[in-house]
Amino acid sequence: MTIRHTEYDLALRDHDMLPVIAYGCAGSSKTYSAVKFAIEWLKTKNRQVIITRPNVSFAKELGFLPGNEREKMVPWIRPIEQCFVKQGVSKASLEAMERSGSLTYIPLEYVQGLTFDNTLLICDEVENMTLVQLKALLTRQGKWSKTVLCGDIAQTSPYFRNSGLAELLQMVKATDIPVHTIEFMPEDIVRSKQCRAWIEAFDDWDIIKRTIV
Length: 213
Known about the structure:
A six-stranded parallel β-sheet has the order 3-2-4-5-1-6. By secondary structure, the protein is an alpha/beta fold. The termini are far apart. The longest helix has 20 residues, at about 195-210. Strand 4, helix 6 (about 130-140) and strand 5 (about 145-150) form a beta-alpha-beta unit. The protein has eight helices and six strands.
């Protein structure tokens, strides 16, 4: 763990339940750590975890997805489930948590108008949300609840050209609202050495391109 991982861990577990914005390099354990905290959160009775994300693909979509609402969410739920499974939660346990309502996946489109009490709300891929969508999401937090946003501006989908994450970070700084913000850098990447090498190479290439022009 790096200093930023420690800061993230403390921010997730703060007594004031302030919102957390974890952003930056891929492979830096933003979503994984949020899921780890979710497992701990659910150990307290009458608490629930809600996970959502924008319905924006990074690549060209393969067309209409068959099935009911839950089945249509399978492609974006899979990485979250992988985080749970890697931390010892079986798929059977995940299914049981969904049936009991302690763990719920909700499409971003259905969040507006809801109030979440005693809830850990995790939103992944927030780089693909507008500021208006972020406002609608952040104002859902009710009593005894916590909101965690995970994203990477560098991975904004090419099919989404109005990312609100950068503006949200500017707004947080300008208004001094009490929010934890943790920016992860290449040195915080824990996925693999290869992942870190690629991130650094792409960053270097961006610099080289600017000098060529």
